[in-house]
């Protein structure tokens, strides 16, 4: 084989060898930038919490009672995503689920108080609900975003 044929072939092999890692990195970056279904769940919960805040300020107990179960029994991500999250959580999965259970309990209490028209108890339960959300966010949000989205 002549040197003229080997040189272009070697150049092509080197270019391909350089492009494969670049393409892989781009694919990984695109994957990490995709929003997970949990993100959409959290955004909806945020909107529901804002509506509840407004309803409390207007003493619209019916609306609070209507939204409370939606907050407590919010949708879960698809099973494949849930497994990724639980795998990442590892031994902290119980703590994460505990926060979710506390949110559910507080929202149930809030809904029951709203159904009775007990504004004082609604506000107490809503405060507990917000505290549980905040505790979970402070514990898991930043590490979650760093792991799944590469955000620092």
Topology overview:
Layout: H1 3-33, H2 37-57, H3 61-72, H4 79-89, H5 93-116, H6 119-149
Helix pairs in contact: 2-3, 3-5, 5-6
Features:
152 residues; 86% helix; elongated
Explain what you see.
There is one protein chain. This protein is mainly alpha-helical and 152 residues long. The protein has 6 helices and no strands. The longest helix is centred in the N-terminal third of the chain and has 31 residues. The chain is elongated and about 80 Å long. The termini are far apart.
Give the biggest sheet: none
The succession of helices and strands, N to C, reads HHHHHH
Number of continuous helical runs = 6
Count every beta strand, where a strand is a DSSP E run of 2 or more residues. 0
Question: Short description, anyone?
Answer:
By secondary structure, this protein is mainly alpha-helical. It is built from six helices and no strands. The protein is elongated.
């Amino acid at each position: 084989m002549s040197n003229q044929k080997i040189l272009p072939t070697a150049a092509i092999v080197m270019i391909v060898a350089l492009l494969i890692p670049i393409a892989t990195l781009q694919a990984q970056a695109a994957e990490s930038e995709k929003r997970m279904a949990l993100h959409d769940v959290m955004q909806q919960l945020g909107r529901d919490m804002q509506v509840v805040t407004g309803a409390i300020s207007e003493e619209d107990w019916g609306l609070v009672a209507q939204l409370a179960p939606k907050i407590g029994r919010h949708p879960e991500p698809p099973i494949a995503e849930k497994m990724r999250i639980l795998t990442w959580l590892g031994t902290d999965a119980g703590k994460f689920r505990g926060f979710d259970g506390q949110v559910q309990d507080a929202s149930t209490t809030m809904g029951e108080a709203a159904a009775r028209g007990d504004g004082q108890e609604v506000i107490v339960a809503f405060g507990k609900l917000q505290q549980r959300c905040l505790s979970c966010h402070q514990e898991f949000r930043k590490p979650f975003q760093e792991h799944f989205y590469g955000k620092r």
